């Protein structure tokens, strides 16, 4: 029987509430599919910073390295610690564990409303592959002559052949397998999200790597969209998209728009993946920590539960992962148990319970 050791970092704000639902679903899936999970909680985050002047201990990565995967609730509480300090923790794990893929599926489930009339369960089903360790997030730069009229800031984006290539190749590989919801064959298209009309070094380089990798996949349709135009097409013709590959910052930005296509931040899940499994991968809802909602049990746990689905898929428990999705779809389509963002009055744990119940009452795949 497989045993998975899962590190749980609930983090700040609503992190505890969503992490509880994530763990609930993990345990229910384990019981049903006959694997074991051992979770361990780490209280790292802004409160930890107030006590220790660091967001997580110095040997945090050594500790986390012992685990098969990490679940992260959400980090940040600007009333306690400035965001650019607290979020170093997230970025340190992504980079330190070479989680070079940030996988962000964008799927609108039946029963979920979006403010966009073009977005329906039939039209919204795509996935963004975001490069997750370099690019605009390379932390190369500096501040000079601060507080003087000559003050300046430099933040350099770094794009390496290896970094671009592995992210783009992952996207092409995904496109060979990925099927849209309800369809029997892969669409097989990778849209290159770029800005090479203006960023004449970095994005022209990125495009050239895209072209090199594309040659290895003659059956996959190539496609290109400048990031500004892509935001327009996401809204106008979401059905067009299959797999989108983007640099770190562009991927960050377009996935918040993607979250709205799929019904809001409460539905958007992400996986920070080290595909080679040399290091543990980390799964998290892409929403923030919403400190103002903390302790009220009103936030939507679906994004966190979907992150567990991505985790189990990564760990090789594909049947359990499919099952979670079925249970989420069933619960949302029935529309009986809804948190306030969905127009309901149910609590976070009630949505988690409803999904857990669906998993337990559904058949084995
Ligand atoms: C995300 C977040 C982070 C990012 C922030 C909090 C540093 O917006 O995961 O999308 O920019 O990657
Ligand atoms: Mn973001």
Task: Describe the secondary structure blueprint for this structure.
Layout: E1 3-11, H1 15-33, E2 36-41, H2 46-52, H3 60-64, E3 69-74, H4 83-86, H5 88-96, E4 101-107, E5 125-131, E6 135-144, E7 152-158, H6 161-177, E8 189-194, H7 202-215, E9 221-226, H8 227-236, E10 243-246, H9 248-261, E11 269-273, E12 281-285, H10 302-315, H11 318-334, H12 348-361
Parallel strand pairs: 1-2, 1-3, 3-12, 5-10, 8-9, 8-10
Antiparallel strand pairs: 4-5, 4-11, 6-7, 11-12
Helix pairs in contact: 1-10, 1-11, 1-12, 6-7, 8-9, 10-11, 11-12
Bound molecules: 3-isopropylmalic acid (IPM) and manganese (II) ion (MN).
3-isopropylmalic acid binds next to loops.
Description:
This protein is of the alpha/beta class and 365 residues long. It has 2 domains: 206 residues, Isopropylmalate Dehydrogenase, CATH 3.40.718; 147 residues, 3-Layer(aba) Sandwich (Isopropylmalate Dehydrogenase). Helix content is 39%, strand content 21%. It contains 12 helices and 12 strands. The strands form 2 sheets. A 10-stranded mixed sheet has the order 2-1-3-12-11-4-5-10-8-9, sandwiched between helices. A two-stranded antiparallel ribbon has the order 6-7. A hairpin with a 7-residue loop joins β11 and β12. α1 packs across α11, α1 packs parallel to α12 and α10 packs antiparallel against α11. The radius of gyration is 20 Å and the shape is globular. The two termini are 18 Å apart.
């Amino acid at each position: 029987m497989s045993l998975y050791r899962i590190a749980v970092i609930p983090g700040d704000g609503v992190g505890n509430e969503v992490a509880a639902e994530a763990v609930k679903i993990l345990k229910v899936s384990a019981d049903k599919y006959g694997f074991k999970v051992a979770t361990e909680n780490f209280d790292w985050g802004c409160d930890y910073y107030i006590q220790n002047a660091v967001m997580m201990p110095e040997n945090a990565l050594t500790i986390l390295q012992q685990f098969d995967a990490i679940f992260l609730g959400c980090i940040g509480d600007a009333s306690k610690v400035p965001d650019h300090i607290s979020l170093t923790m997230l970025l340190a794990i992504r980079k330190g564990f070479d989680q070079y893929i940030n996988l962000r599926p964008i799927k609108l489930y039946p029963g979920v409303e979006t403010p966009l009339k073009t977005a329906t369960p039939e039209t919204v089903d795509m996935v963004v592959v975001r490069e997750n360790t370099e690019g605009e997030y390379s932390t190369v730069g500096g501040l000079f002559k601060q507080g003087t009229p000559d003050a300046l800031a430099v933040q350099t984006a770094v794009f390496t052949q290896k970094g671009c290539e592995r992210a783009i190749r992952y996207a092409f590989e995904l496109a060979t397998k990925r099927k849209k919801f309800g369809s029997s064959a892969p669409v097989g298209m990778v849209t290159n999200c770029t800005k090479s009309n203006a960023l004449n070094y970095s994005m022209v380089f990125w495009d050239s790597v895209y072209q090199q990798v594309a040659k290895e996949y003659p059956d996959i349709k190539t496609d290109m969209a400048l990031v500004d135009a892509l935001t327009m097409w996401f809204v106008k013709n979401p059905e067009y998209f299959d797999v989108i590959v983007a640099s770190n910052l562009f991927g960050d930005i377009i996935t918040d728009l993607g979250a709205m296509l799929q019904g809001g931040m409460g539905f958007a899940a992400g996986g920070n993946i080290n595909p080679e499994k040399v290091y543990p991968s980390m799964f998290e809802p892409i929403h923030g920590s919403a400190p103002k909602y903390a302790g009220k049990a009103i936030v939507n746990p679906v994004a966190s539960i979907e992150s567990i689905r991505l985790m189990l898929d990564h760990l090789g428990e594909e049947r359990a992962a499919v099952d979670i999705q079925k249970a989420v779809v069933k619960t949302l389509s029935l529309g009986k148990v809804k948190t306030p963002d969905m127009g309901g009055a149910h609590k976070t744990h009630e949505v988690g319970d409803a999904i857990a119940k669906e998993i337990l009452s559904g058949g084995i795949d």
